[in-house]
Amino acid sequence: MAPYSIRSFLAGQTSAAPSASKEFSELSKKQISAVFGPTVPADVGNEILARLQHQRTTGTLDSGFNAPGVDEQLLLNALAWLRATYPMDEDAAIIARLDEEEREEERALLAKAEKIGLYKPQQSAEKDGIYGKSQLEAIRHENEMKYEEELQAKQTQKSQADEIRNLSGDSEIIQDSQRRAVVARRTQSAEWVKKYKERAVLSQDTKPPEMSKIRRLLPAGIVTLVVVGACYFLAQNYVPPPRVARLFPDIPPAAATYVGLFVMNAVVLVMWRIPPFWRFMNQYFLIIPGAPRATSILGNVISHQSIMHFSGNMLVLWFIGTQLHDEIGRGKFLGVYFASGVIGSYFSFAGFVLRNNLTTASLGASGALAGVIGCYLYLHSGEKMNILFLPPDLVPAIPANFILSLLITIEILAILRGSRKVDNRAHLGGYLAGIAGANLIRKQREQQRQAEIEIERTWASSKGSGKGGYDS
Length: 472
Description:
By secondary structure, this protein is mainly α. Helices cover about 60% and strands about 5% of the residues. It has a two-stranded antiparallel sheet with strand order 1-2. The chain has a two-stranded antiparallel sheet with strand order 3-4. Helix 8 runs antiparallel to helix 13 (about 330-355). The longest helix is centred in the last third of the chain and has 48 residues, at about 425-470.
């Protein structure tokens, strides 16, 4: 499961933060609260201010800004504070950057021309032969003529996905600068996207609504218990249909279950990329601690925004999920999958609420997949496992209980370090739920085994007494 900002339902991956400008000095917690409000931690606020200042001084404000978990209005306030505290000519910085990009493009073009033999640099003006100079002039003229056209073409030829990323909440930080001609580079074709983006905002408030922690946690907790109960009922009562009643009888049951889950997750992934769905997706497929909606505890389990996040989870589901499915059956597998998903989601949600981090949201099937992994490894805790994709002849098998312990330890250490890139609490909750499910399965297997032994004893006793009566 991956954390996202409230407005990052359209955003791509966040790049690493650049080093802070020499002009900027870190603020105290009290000063950060004055700029952002009480919901933004001091370290996050200083990082955002440093990155904003870096973009101001390097002339890259027009390229957008990603600040997970912080409302756009707070970012605008931060930008206004920087402008008041560190005044500078932002337009001049942007123009200087554009000029440098143009010179860099020209140097690259000349280097390419020299490489293929169209141009040779001369040692002095006297040695500029007609070939060298005319080719240089032709290249320069062609570059100057096409430069503006290329800039416009890059904007008009962008794919819909690029437009969505550029119009996400991350680029709203520069809306004040967009009033200036040098920064206003949006195309008119994006207005329809902007309309749906504004409609997708669930609240116009600049800070989460006031409510107690119990009030935030209780509704989602009830939904979690209901879903877990439903999963237990499914695991205990599911009866596989006969082969003739199956929709795809020639496909193994594990593969059919995988295809169903894959399609569910893929449909939600596509819906995140369709602007009219954005408000609906924010309401039911994204956990937002600041504005909680209880049913999103379940919806986010099949929700991904990133293709890489989706692909990674689906690979784990195929390689490990199908093996667990073959071992325990469809009913128990789906019970473990969705119960682990909602429990992992609630672990994540509760962690955000208890730490007063109300503006960071999360989604993804990683908690459910952690439960599948935890269940599979716990069921085979006395066995050794080969590492996936590594040759067993070169890499020795590792005890399953060691692998599971290592995975849980990694998540705990990441939580203690305060990792913000991955939702480790959701992973930890998923592992624990998977282990609990494996324990139930083990107990049921033991009960079934004892019942079978008792039946065999009863049958043997009955057969023995019957045989004795016949002989006599």
